[in-house]
């Protein structure tokens, strides 16, 4: 549904912090599904962990949040930025390593104005690698 050009237009993130390669599903007002292709060329693998590269958990959560940001932009809030408010129930079930494709699923649990609550999970080969609930607020891109 969305390639990298459309993602660039939707999110303010750029390399090395753009963590969504493609959006493959979008259900208006409900959910979005994205993909992150994990390669050995990722900057974070230089130090996490040399000789045994594992994708940092915080970046898996960030990839879920970016998928949620695309969901919010597609839901009529384009031109805005989404900022974390909270992360709850985060669980890391399986290491994500180079060569994996992280299947990012986010589901809208609640929306009150500009505040969104999502449940997200990342799967590799159909097995849950990461899951969390998080809240974020959509606001102007400039922070004062």
Structural class: alpha+beta
**Low-confidence region ranges:** none
CATH topology (fold) name: Thiol Ester Dehydrase, Chain A
The CATH class is Alpha Beta
> Widest sheet: strand order?
1-2-4-5-6-3
Alpha carbon gyration radius: 14 Å
Count the DSSP helices.
2
Count of folded domains: 1
Shape: globular
What order do the SSEs take from the amino end to the carboxyl end, as H and E? Answer: HEEHEEEE
In angstroms, what separates the terminal alpha carbons? 34 Å
Largest sheet: 6 strands, antiparallel
* Nearest-integer average pLDDT: 93
Approximately how much helix is present in the residues?
10-25%
**Can you identify the CATH superfamily?**
Hotdog Thioesterase
Proportion in β-strands: 35-45%
Strand element count: 6
Do you know the CATH architecture?
A: Roll
3D architecture notes:
By secondary structure, this protein is of the alpha+beta class. It is built from two helices and six strands, in the order αββαββββ. The protein has a single domain, classed as Hotdog Thioesterase (Thiol Ester Dehydrase, Chain A, Roll), CATH 3.10.129. Helices cover 19% and strands 42% of the residues. Strands 1-2-4-5-6-3 form a six-stranded antiparallel β-sheet, with helices on one face. The model has no long low-confidence stretch (mean pLDDT 93).
């Amino acid at each position: 549904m969305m390639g990298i050009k459309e993602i660039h237009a939707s999110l303010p993130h750029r390399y090395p912090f753009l963590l969504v390669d493609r959006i493959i599903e979008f259900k208006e007002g409900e959910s979005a599904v994205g993909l992150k292709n994990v390669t050995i060329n990722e900057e974070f693998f230089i130090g996490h962990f040399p000789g045994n590269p594992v994708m940092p958990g915080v970046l898996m959560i960030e990839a879920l949040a970016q998928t949620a940001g695309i969901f919010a932009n597609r839901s009529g809030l384009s031109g805005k930025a989404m900022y974390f408010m909270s992360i709850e129930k985060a669980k890391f079930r399986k290491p994500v390593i180079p060569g994996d494709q992280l299947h990012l699923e986010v589901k809208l649990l609640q929306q009150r104005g500009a505040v969104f609550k999502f449940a997200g999970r990342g799967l590799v080969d159909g097995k849950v690698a990461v899951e969390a609930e998080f809240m974020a607020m959509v606001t102007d891109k400039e922070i004062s």
